[in-house]
From TrEMBL:
Annotated localization: Cytoplasm
Protein name per UniProt: Lysine--tRNA ligase
Gene3D superfamilies in UniProt: Bira Bifunctional Protein, Domain 2, Nucleic acid-binding proteins
GO biological process, one term: lysyl-tRNA aminoacylation
Length: 502
């Protein structure tokens, strides 16, 4: 019997695609040659933006005598015999670099050709010049790899699909200008929101994301366990009840921009994790906060896209300027259904109307929910431009003040822009006795199987018992604001949306 030598164990590199294997070999070669492929620091003296700002116009072939040290990711390269060209990108700004045999020597030029790949982070030290074609450039005296990319960039002629772009947003940001622009647009909008509210005397606060009681909105929550206290807690579905506590405590104008979590479906306008602006203003009603919401949107549009009237990337023309119309929910639903619907319309009548129009109704739904479903199915897609749909059923709005003149409804509006709900505003319910009654009704619905219904929040009721002034409150979806500005789906406006694990 002859014995055979065991085969050597397979290594990770054995299964790598060729491009990854070649780049890893380059990394190993650099290390073997005593060259660090991931340096700690370099003598960077200027950003690419600063270089471009300093030399807006140079004549072809002009030299400046200005020596700089610049860095960036290599996104283009063209190697010729004695002169190589590359384009660096840093913070969205691009600049050409030139590697010349006469300047760096034969060994350094050979290393550029053999060691450098697209996607590498590069440091170049040299003179700012204009190339023979008039391109602003840095003519290298020396260069170095600052971070070796061992995975090749996605190629421009084979665009990533939407799923890949979302899963690998880091790669999306590298290769697609639209992805980088979305981040900038979002940042500009949020900065504007904070500025507008600051000008009106609002104070920004942070409230808990882990909450012991489900409340602030009607939605299915995420539930987790707080190990230290051995209790179940909810990821917040809204910061509302804590912001109202602030108003009780004397912070009369308060807001928060933060994440909310709702354990529901995901589609082009819904994400289980999303960002909301909520603000509350003492001695204001739902008309007052509607006006402020309009101002917030208009200012954010000017900051993010440059105007209140603009054309989105999908070609849709949006006009956010001027006053925005206000219409009655019941009137719109009645017109669309072809029958007069009022707060007194019975549940059976509403179900009959829904059935007539082919609208599916959950048997557990209350009258107000059915009425809102009729509106959603028959009216929402017909809404153009910004419009406030107002005066909602009392039984679906447990945190809202009853209308001062219309029985059976509350002082609430929903903001729609191009058929998409973008926010909601209230004249807030501040009577602790009525609020308790509403919570009890919600608890009954919850006991009947409605997992979205709120729980009784005794601490919030105690806060109201100290006295809360008349208050208007608003919640505006930041992700949907960006959808309004860009025409993109919600997963494009969120930098890292949740996706099902691979």
């Amino acid at each position: 019997m002859t014995s055979q030598s065991p085969e050597p164990p397979a290594t990770e590199s054995d299964d790598l695609p060729e491009q990854l294997r070649i780049r890893r070999e380059k990394r190993e070669r650099l290390i073997d040659d005593g060259i660090e492929p991931y340096v700690v620091a370099v003598a960077r003296t200027r950003s690419l933006a600063e270089v471009r700002a300093a030399y807006p116009e140079l004549e072809a072939g002009q030299e400046t005598g200005d020596k700089v040290g610049v860095t960036g990711r290599l996104i283009f390269m063209r190697n010729t015999g004695k002169l190589c060209f590359g384009t660096l990108r840093e913070g969205g700004i691009e600049l050409q670099v030139m590697i010349s045999l006469a300047k760096v020597g034969e060994e350094s030029l050979a290393r550029w050709k053999s060691d450098v790949d697209l996607g590498d982070h590069i440091f170049v030290e040299g003179e700012v010049i204009a190339s023979r074609r008039g391109e602003l450039s840095v003519m290298a005296d020396s260069w170095a790899i600052t971070a070796k990319a061992i995975r090749p960039l996605p190629v421009a002629h084979k665009a990533m699909n939407e799923e890949t772009r979302i899963r690998q947003r880091y790669a999306d940001l590298i290769v697609r200008p639209e992805a980088r622009q979305m981040v900038q647009t979002r940042g500009q909008a949020i900065t504007s929101i904070r500025g507008t509210l600051g000008e009106h005397g609002f104070i920004e606060v942070e409230t808990p994301m882990l909450q012991a009681v489900q409340g602030g909105a009607t939605a299915r929550p995420f539930i987790t366990e707080y190990n230290a206290y051995d209790v179940d807690v909810f990821l917040r579905i809204a910061p509302e009840l804590y912001l109202k506590r602030c108003v009780v405590g004397g912070i009369d104008r308060v807001f928060e921009i933060g994440r909310n979590f709702r354990n529901e479906g995901a589609d082009s306008t819904h994400s289980p994790e999303f960002v909301m602006l909520e603000f509350y203003q003492a001695y204001a009603d739902y008309d007052d906060v509607a006006d402020l919401s309009r101002e917030i949107y208009q200012n954010a549009a000017e900051a993010a896209v440059g105007a209140q009237k603009f054309t989105r990337l999908d070609g849709t023309e949006i006009d956010l300027s001027g006053e925005w119309p206000k219409v009655s929910l019941y009137e719109m639903a009645s017109e669309a259904a072809g029958v007069r619907l009022t707060p007194e319309t019975s549940l059976d009548e509403l179900r009959s109307v829904a059935e007539k129009h082919g609208i599916k109704v959950n048997p557990a739904w209350i009258a107000g929910k059915v009425l809102e479903e009729i509106f959603e199915e028959l009216c929402k897609d017909q809404l153009r431009g910004p419009i406030f749909v107002r005066d909602f059923p009392v039984d679906t709005s447990p945190l809202v003040r009853a209308h001062r003149s219309i029985p059976g409804v509350v002082e609430k509006w929903d903001l729609y822009i191009e058929g998409m709900e973008c926010g909601t505003g209230y004249s807030e319910l501040v009577d602790p006795v009525i609020q308790r009654e509403r919570f009890v009704e919600q608890a009954a619905q919850r006991a009947g199987g409605d997992v979205e219904a709120m729980q009784i929040d005794e601490d919030f009721l105690r806060a109201l018992e100290y006295g809360m002034p008349p208050t208007g409150g608003v919640g505006l979806g930041i992700d949907r604001m960006l959808q309004t500005f860009t025409g993109r789906g919600i997963r494009e406006t969120i930098l890292f949306p949740f996706v099902k694990p691979e």
